[in-house]
Amino acid sequence: MSKKIKRIIPTHWFCLIIGMYLIGLHKSTSIGVSTPLSFLCLNTLIPRWGCANLASWTISTLMVLYVLTPVLIKYLSKIPKHWLLFTALVIAALSMLLNMTLYDPKNETMFWFLYISPYFRIVTYSIGILLGLYVKGASIHSKDSISLKISLIEIAFYILMGMFIYEFHKVTGYWYTIPIILLILLSVNGSGIISHLLKEKHVVRLAKYSFSFYLIHYPILITVRYIIEKLEITNSTIILLILLVSLISIFIVAVLMYHFIENKFINIQIQFKRIVIIC
Question: At residue 187, does pLDDT exceed 70?
Fold first, then answer.
């Protein structure tokens, strides 16, 4: 986990600086009052969390959750294994119901609390830990318990709700939790189509660049939107081509960031440790 953080933080800082430059250049949106806090990964602790790179909110929230991970694992691991999946599904269902009850698109503070802040994100993070504890050594074909079949039926029920009930989509993105649980379960035994797809070398290679892609996409796309509006481009074909070029550009930048920032920073740290040891 510490290695992952060491990789992420330099990329996070770089994208914030790029975001400040691009947004300051065309002034299409606000840089955000919490940009200084975002450098310290603290901006999502307060309602006014906006910064130069809105995609970086995940970093701040994850940092808090990483700190809490040992405590969460300590207490969640006390739940009997045959109850882990059921507990994860119950927590997911309750979080979605709470979102459907409290979410108000006009209330920015409520949106921050339910979707951005670590105070509520700890719910989905805990679901991830529960699933991790459950799938450890488990198999989708094993006679683990009858609760697995019940849980799969429950998952199918939630997916149908998400497809056919409009109100279900007011959970600010939390409805995807159930399908994701299903995907994890289907890949547990390592022999299914999903497992083979995730292990495919090209998919693994692309996954290395995914976080850099995610962090840099906002500053670039917000700039592209500004250019389209500034030049008053309305032709849908041209806009589609611009977006396609933008996506290719984001991917190229993400690859460069991975090799020249993430990996470079790790190598510098390794060399520095060697020098300290020699001294």
Answer: no
Residue 98 one-letter amino acid: L
pTM (2 d.p.)? 0.71
Is residue 252 very low, low, confident or very high in pLDDT (cuts 50, 70, 90)? very high
